[in-house]
Amino acid sequence: MSFVTLHEVGPRDGLQNEPGVIAVADRVALIDALAAAGLRQIEVGSFVSPKWVPQMARTDEVMAALKPGPCYAVLVPNMRGWDGFAAAARQGDYKVAVFVAATEGFSRANLNCSVADSLERAAPVIAAAKTAGVAVRGYVSCVTDCPYEGRVAPGQVADVAARLMALGVGEVSLGETIGKGDPERVAKMLDAVADVVPVTALAGHFHDTGGQALAHIQVALEKGLRNFDAAAGGLGGCPYAPGAPGNVATEAVVAMLHGMGFETGVDIAKLARAAEMANALRGGRDVGQG
Ligand code: HMG
Ligand code: MG
Predict the structure, then answer these.
(1) Using CA positions, which residue lies closest to atom 4 of ligand 1?
(2) Which ligand sits closest to the CA of 54?
(3) Is residue 209 within 6 Å of ligand 1 at its C-beta?
(4) pTM across the whole model
(5) Model confidence over 131-163: pLDDT tens digits?
(6) Using CA positions, which residue lies closest to atom 32 of ligand 1?
(7) CA dihedral 267, 268, 271, 272 (to 10 degrees)
(8) CB 44 within 8 A of CB 70
(9) 114-125, pLDDT tens digit by residue?
(10) Which of 57, 76, 156, 254 is most exposed by smallest CB count within 10 Å?
(11) CA-CA distance, 76 to 45, in Å (whole number)?
């Protein structure tokens, strides 16, 4: 039987989109519940500017409260972020994630710099992580569609993915950021990327805004990918569109994968509890430590 690795992004990609700032204790409680459900890779926060993303401030405090066991990932856009991560990291298994875009428009909006400059800023982070023995993931956003430039050519995505690999990341996560893609275009994009990056080093990161994320995962499974990102409770909707789907829900991905005969190591009942907690955090409500 084939194993699929899930990279839980709810505590980062989910909570960063919530209109309110969630208390550190609640972020930690959600992460603990996800770990208890068997998730072994959990993205727990970001070392980015708190002016840009106030929801991810105090990620150092979140890290300090985590129990060892899973591999905890954090976003790190530049050396300032690396220094924050390095000061907060205790003994344990960590991964840092650099993030760039396939398009100039999204790069400017998200990172305030060009794609080339974002790769230049990521390079020393990747080098520092390698020296410290910390694994590195590289995200490419807007792999099918960009909110500023429309449809994205597969070759553009392959080019940025190859550059990240050349800089030394261990894996590339392909972000379908705005959920506008369709399975056919996802397939073409994956073919182009797989020409330059081994599929074993690829992860699929599909937002479910258009309700196509599970279909995209199926296409990616056919192409040989065995790593997918998901957020418990489907956290991550747009704060200005209440109820809109965000990241693909981990519980939906696990149910589909188990139904297809894949193993994930995730306990469905415990994941349902974590998804409940995630949903209770929507809108900044306090779920306590439960
Ligand atoms: P900037 O304003 O161009 O940077 O922002 P700067 O170097 O000029 O610095 C401006 C201020 O930020 C300074 O502070 C710096 O010290 C501070 P000030 O002097 O004004 O008080 N600063 C930092 N503070 C904390 N941590 C840092 C850091 N760096 C600078 N690391 C920057 C550039 C990258 C910082 C900014 O654009 C930023 O923080 N962007 C955040 C973007 C982000 O987190 N987006 C969401 C995550 S990406 C995503 O969700 C997509 C993904 O899920 C995949 C997908 O779905 O496609 C991964
Ligand atoms: Mg995302």
Answers:
(1) 112
(2) 1
(3) no
(4) 0.96
(5) 999 999 999 999 999 999 999 999 999 999 999
(6) 111
(7) -150
(8) no
(9) 999 999 999 999
(10) 57
(11) 9
